Amino acid sequence: MKTHLECFQCFANQVLVASRLASKDEKLHKLAIQKVMAKLAELDTDLPPPAAGAFIYKTVREISGNFDPYADIKRESNEFAMSLYNDLKQQVESSQNPLKTAVILAAAGNIIDFGTGRTIHKKDTLDALEDALKNPPEGNIDRLCSAMKSAENILVLGDNAGEIVLDRLMIEALGRDKADIIYAVRGGPIINDALLEDAQYVGMENIARVVSNGSESPGVFLDDCSGEFKKIFKNADVIVSKGQGNFEALSDTDHDINFILRAKCPVVSRYLNVPEGTNLVIEKKGMELIM
Question: According to a count of CB atoms within 10 Å of the terminal CB, is the N or C end of the chain lower?
Fold first, then answer.
């Protein structure tokens, strides 16, 4: 999807939040905003919003010298989500349809996103998980579950730290051999997106082959990804994409992809014609989005 005018408000907020996390020096905050705003004035709005996100956080890192401003937030998110793991695992296993329940929770877990500029409290996550079980995501979850069960191999495109624990539950509920599933994380620090160390911390390596996509963008742009990841993407029988950033980056491509996300901003909500805060399961066949 393309960048809209409202996105620029979000970009400005993102650089301010990130620069304040990276440094307490207000002079650096001002410099980061000035540099980002000057660059955004030249932004091609035909590009998806995550294209700007990559530049925003690279600029903050370079100016502040802080390689990973969201490191503490990611650690706290992983620790909190892991503290919920056993109870959620029991809920999944005791449900009538464990995989469907796990997909529902995985969709709700996409609330753990600090790229929106909002602070996500523990209660927000707990409320989102509880509400999702009462009000499942929009879209055909059964169709997604069937596709994953019958696939020879599955590529899951991860999104955020913390959220990755809910993805683990979904993969475990599949009951597939580890060799059949590849879980992809970002190639370097970007917002609170999951990296290899996050996957290791939550035990993802025990149930899937974990790979880096080689990119530091908050959405999957294949041109920026490693050659290894491109081959994996091309050869995947079923692709499951987590999160809003990945949806924004991949929704206009001609690849067949299954999206699991939470619509967290007015632009995406309007694009999909759903209320803000809606959890979604979307199948994309070619250029057609099917809900």
Answer: C
